[in-house]
Amino acid sequence: MRSSILLGRKPLSADERRALRREIDALQLRRDQPFTVGGRPVAGTDESRFPEGTKTVYATEFRGNHLAIPVIRVDGEWKADVRFWLAMARMQKRKVDESTPEMRAKEFLFYVLSRQPAKLDGVSATPIDGADYTRANNLPPGDRDQLLNLCLEMPVVRARSDEELTMPSGRVVRGGAQGDTVVFVGLLGTTEVPFLLVHAADSWRVVPQKYFEFLRASKAL
Questions:
Q1: Which neighbouring-strand residues pair with 36?
Q2: In the 3-class helix/strand/coil scheme, how is 25-46 assigned residue by residue?
Q3: What is the pLDDT of residue 93?
Q4: What is the pLDDT of residues 69-86, one digit of tens each?
Q5: What's the confidence (pLDDT) of residue 5?
Q6: Dist CA 44 CA 35 (whole Å)
Q7: CA dihedral sign, ordered 27, 32, 34, 36
Q8: pLDDT tens string 133-144
Q9: Residues 6+ apart with CB under 8 A from 200
Q10: Is 152 helix (H, G, I), strand (E, B) or coil?
Q11: Between the chain's N and C termini, which has fewer beta carbons within 10 Å?
């Protein structure tokens, strides 16, 4: 089922597969993120000894498009973390549902990046002064527009039950439902962005974080 979402239902001919193989073999990959576990850097340089759950993201150009390739170490091997690709494929096929936790997470980040402090309180899990979360955003209009487009296209997925993520506040959270609280993670370009959401009063709300400062520290800006 998952492979059909990514590959489509039309099989490639032998010639098409060979041509695609040549394209892929010619790709130039660059590692765009450090090796991390739970959002914390991994010490050492021997990738074969990195612990389970170590992650990084590679970037490349494929047929004129920017492509992020997140990978994770599982069972002693490096494997593509395709959940973000699956989420992007589903986004293209489904109507937007503003009530989902994924959309609520994107809303919060969008309001931070677009400097709309008045709207942040409406999607925050606790009362906040929205200006505290947008004040550091000094991007010029051109750069800001580019980042907003990335935000709109950002896939957001539920964190795995054993996945640890470090929030912008420094708090370490683990995936899996904990009462009315769940952890999600987005991929903004090549940067993972963690979100903590609370379900209250029949709607999802985001635990507020200083996302602009987080993205700047992550060199995503």
A1: 41, 55
A2: HCCCCEECCCCEECCEECCCCC
A3: 81
A4: 999 999 999 999 999 999
A5: 55
A6: 10
A7: negative
A8: 999 999 999 999
A9: 125, 180
A10: helix
A11: N
DSSP states of 156-171 as a string? EEEPPTT-EEE-TTS-
Secondary structure element (H or E) that encloses residue 68, with its range: strand 65-74
In whole angstroms, what is the distance from residue 184 CA to residue 166 CA?
12
The answer to whether the beta carbons of residues 66 and 59 sit under 8 Å apart is yes
| pLDDT of the residue at 8 | 62
* Residue owning tokens 């109507």: 95
CATH classification number, 97-217, choose in 3.10.450, 3.80.10, 1.20.950, 2.170.16:
3.10.450
Element (H, E) at 88: helix 83-93
The answer to whether the CB of 44 falls within 8 A of the CB of 35 is no
DSSP symbol at 49: G
Q: What is the pLDDT of residue 1?
A: 47
**Angle subtended at Cα 104 by Cα 103 and Cα 105, rounded to the nearest 5 degrees:** 90
**Predicted pLDDT at 37:** 93
Q: What is the pLDDT of residue 221?
A: 84
Among residues 50, 88, 91, the alpha carbon closest in space to that of 71 is found at 50
pTM assigned to the model: 0.90
Residue ranges of the chain with per-residue pLDDT less than 70: 1-9
Q: Hey, what amino acid is at 152? A: L
140-149, long-range: CB within 8 Å, 24+ apart, which pairs? 143/221, 144/113, 144/114, 144/115, 147/113, 147/221, 148/110, 148/113, 148/114
